[in-house]
Amino acid sequence: MRNLALMWVLAGLAVVGIAYGDGKDGGFATEMVFVEGGTFMMGCTVEQGGDCVGGEKPARSVAVGDFYIGKTEVTQGLWASFAILTVRRGG
Question: What pLDDT, on the 0 to 100 scale, is given for residue 53?
Answer without folding.
Answer: 83
